[in-house]
Amino acid sequence: MSACYTSLMLKFAPNLFFMYREHHPIDRFAAARADGFGYVELCYLEDFDIDELKRALADAGQTLLSFNFPPGDVQPGKTRGLAAIPGREAEFRGLIRQGLEWADALGVTQALCPLYGLRPEGVSQEDCETTLIANLKSVRGDLEAAGLTLLIEPHCSKDFPGYVIDRMDQARRVVEAVDSPNLRILLDTYHTQRMEGDITGQIARHLDLIAHIQVGSSPDRHEPDTGEVNHRYVFEKLDAAGYAGWIAGEYFPSGATSDGLGWINDWGLKTEP
Q1: Distance, CA of 55 to CA of 202 (rounded, Å)
Q2: What range defines the domain where residue 204 resides?
Q3: Per the structure, how many domains does the chain have?
Q4: 13, 213 in Cβ contact below 8 A?
Q5: 22 annotated active-site
Q6: What is the CATH number of the domain that holds 116?
């Protein structure tokens, strides 16, 4: 017997890097629209022609919620960005300039910060956080002028050993130190569960600074109605707390994307504002 749930006043959008991977990247917009999604998000834009991307969004009648700023140097197991790495400040500002150009072209008002990096040997965590804070302070005016909110996301350092920001309290420390309304936290349930657990506790402690949420089951990063986290309970807590932002699906579907979307209707999530 299937459970009967009360609808939630929460909004869900697919991330088209993770979901609809059975389609060519530019065809994922139409596929998501066919499933009723009026809003989508992306990860990195380097492989897209921006004009073609704008046409795909317009043809599908969709709005782009967010995307990832260029990440910086990424070599699996060796490097994962540079935003918190001393000596890479000029490169960081270049990544911000590129991301702001994309945001302006696409009319996007929030995006993910360039990746922070793997802590180099001989460099302290404190030095990395100090570098990140200084970098973000240096672009506060640019973010404000653009009307763009930059999102700070902790990543699971079990997947990426040495990653500089891997816990929610670190993200909060950075956001509070920069002290800008254009800098907020992204909570990803996959990363948070893998690193810390206590997802509803994290929400309670940090909801005042959380502007966006991404979801994926742990440990396999599939649909949120699978795995070890009771996402329905998490969503109920978010709903009760009055969370007004979006929830995005940053998970790898266990089969065809459309076949795994039943939980959205079952739980009464919205796909439009």
Answers
A1: 38
A2: 11-267
A3: 1
A4: no
A5: no
A6: 3.20.20.150
For residue 5, how many other CB atoms are within 10 A of its CB? 14
Q: pTM of the predicted model, to two decimals?
A: 0.96
- Is residue 206 domain-resident? yes
Active site (annotated) includes residue 153: yes
Answer whether residue 3 is part of any domain: no
Q: What pairing do the DSSP bridges indicate for beta strands 149-152 and 183-188?
A: parallel
Q: Exactly one of 41, 91, 129, 153 is catalytic; which is it?
A: 153
41, 91, 129, 250: the catalytic one is 250
Q: Per residue of the chain (273 residues), what is the pLDDT tens digit? A: 356 567 899 999 999 999 999 999 999 999 999 999 999 999 999 989 999 999 999 999 999 999 999 999 999 989 999 999 999 999 999 999 999 999 999 999 999 999 999 999 999 999 999 999 999 999 999 999 999 999 999 999 999 999 999 999 999 999 999 999 999 999 999 999 999 999 999 999 999 999 999 999 999 999 999 999 999 999 999 999 999 999 999 999 999 999 999 999 999 999 998
User: How far is it, in rounded angstroms, from Cα 261 to Cα 254?
Assistant: 11
**In-domain check, residue 83:** yes
